[in-house]
Specification:
By secondary structure, this protein is mostly helical. The protein is built from nine helices and no strands.
Amino acid sequence: MKFNRILLSVTLVVVALVIQVSVLARLQLPGAVPDLVLLTVLGLALVYGPVSGSLIGFGAGLLADLAPPADHAAGRYALVLCVIGYLAGLARPENGRLKSASGPMAVVVAAAIGTTLLYAGVGALVGDTAARHVGLGFLLFTAAVYDLLLAPFAVPLIMALARRAENDPLVDTSGGTDVATGWLASGTGLRIGTQRGGLLVKAARTRASRAGRIKGVKRL
């Protein structure tokens, strides 16, 4: 991985983990806890691809395993997020652009459900039956709902930061849309400077054409 990818990924994962442990976990919501660490891994994997997504997922999961108040074996969540990060990276389009928010939203729901199932499955292998006491079905439902509600505020921002760190302005001559930009525009109803940018370009072209006409008159 590139140094800027590592630096950005570590920063975002640490910030997400601190917010999750100190804020989201203290909300005492019924069922699952909103998983901001998972959403961070998903956002980075959708930009960087499966290999980087798996590495980021493993590191983020290991930090979550070691962060207090950890009540499970170290490496359990690291394995889960490693698999989820790899699979989410496979959902990244080749050109890095999506025209609708349906794709990333489906990835979020699938990842929330898959993470809960994998975590419960690994726990069952090591003798942890906490998911049975709470109710696996209720955990799956609440995890999907909470992560889906939190995703539009977290994932597009993470993807935009990842794109900026890659020094990729995403100038699309084919009329496509960046993944993060498309999600913000269609998924949250926001417009990210497209009209303003078009007006600025049009105004610059108008001034250039006027300057050309004036110079032509002076030549005559």
